[in-house]
Amino acid sequence: WVTRCHVVSAPKRDDEGEIYISLDGQNICLSKPLEIVGLLIIIRQLKQISKKSGMKIRVETISPPWAFKEYAPNIRQFSRLISLWVWKEDKEIDDYLVVSLASAFNGYYISNDRKMHKHIGKDDDWRDEHRIGWKQSMKTNNIRKQLTEGRDLSGITVDLKIPEGKLFDIYNDMKKQGELVVDFEDWEKEFLKSRLGVTPKKSEKALQKPSPEKTGKYPSIKNLTTAGSGLQLPIEPKQTAEAMLWLATNNNEFDDYNSLRDALKETGILPNSRVVRLLIVIRRTISPPSAFNEESGRYEVWAELHEIEIPAEGLAALCDDIHSQTTL
Asked: Taking a C-beta distance cutoff of 8 angstroms, is the pair 130, 108 a contact?
């Protein structure tokens, strides 16, 4: 439960050698294609600045849990992680907390949202002195090319736009010296490959003699996976199985349909066009019978979302079995 209150700025702490920075985790993690990897790049850069300069940098990441999922231990390596639910009645509560903390400690906040300072009554001059913007340094197509060809990934990074001051000077000096390059862990490389649809480069022989029987594509099944009619489920059975497993594991974390839908989209398990269709199918199977309206002569659709209760025990094995039986 969060109660909004007036935030009083703390005195400057530059003389103490400490700089406070709050991170808008959701804003950063929603940026494709880097997503969670982009957040970790920023955190590692701040860690390197602190280590190189001897300056104490206090970092706190504010984010709803769906944005970082299982990567919390990675975030906590150099940042306190403040996790909070964002309710539909107050969708910008995380933004409010990000700028409130930056104001309270007279520090900075990292976000590309240029309006969130208004939550605490600050003007644009305050925003320009305290907001650190960011952007990925390489275009998405170039990132995909480097991953496909297995080239050096040092050019894949995040450039911070820091207001002029002590931190600005240190950051730019280290950037010129190439001291802000971060190393990617194996899971991060695989994450980016998955998001960008990167597949291993085929040999010349494989390109000359493709096997039509093992294309990896599934045929559309009328009224089941066709896009224009029927259930309109994902074409690949594995996607349906993984989505069902995710829903069985995570559905109790959400209080409303929109939050559940958006979170499932962000997982990347399903194409966005199939997310709503799958949820509709599931919702119809778990909702109680529709009420019959005698005046209209029609069944009325239930407006409320009922809790999805799917036993997770044994579901993973079942999904694997479904996938193995439907793999070409």
From this structure: yes
Query: For residues 162 and 110, what is the distance between their CA atoms, to the nearest angstrom?
Result: 9
Walk along the chain (328 residues) and give the pLDDT tens digit of each residue: 444 444 444 444 444 568 999 999 999 988 888 899 999 999 999 999 999 889 999 999 999 888 777 889 999 989 999 998 888 788 889 999 999 999 999 999 999 999 999 999 999 999 999 999 998 878 888 888 888 887 778 778 899 999 999 999 999 999 999 899 888 888 898 888 888 888 766 555 544 545 444 445 666 676 676 666 677 777 778 888 888 887 877 777 776 777 778 888 888 888 887 888 888 777 666 555 555 555 665 555 544 444 445 555 555 665 666 556 555 4
Angle at 285 between CA 280 and CA 287, to 5 degrees: 90
On whether the CB atoms of residues 182 and 137 are closer than 8 A, the answer is no
Query: Distance between CA atoms of 247 and 94, rounded to whole angstroms?
Result: 24
Can you say whether residue 303 is alpha, beta or left, with left for phi > 0 and alpha for psi between -120 and 50 degrees?
Answer: alpha
Type of residue numbered 125: D
List domains and CATH numbers for the chain. Answer: 14-196 (3.40.50), 212-326 (no CATH)
What distance in Å separates the CA atoms of residue 153 and residue 29, rounded to the nearest whole number? 20
In angstroms, the CA 86 to CA 182 distance is 31
Q: Calculate the CA dihedral of residues 195, 154, 138, 269 and round it to 10 degrees.
A: 10
**Token pair in block for residue 86:** 């964002």
Burial class (CB in 10 A: 0-12, 13-18, 19+), 209: exposed
CB-based contacts of 174, cutoff 8 Å, min separation 6: 48, 49, 52, 180
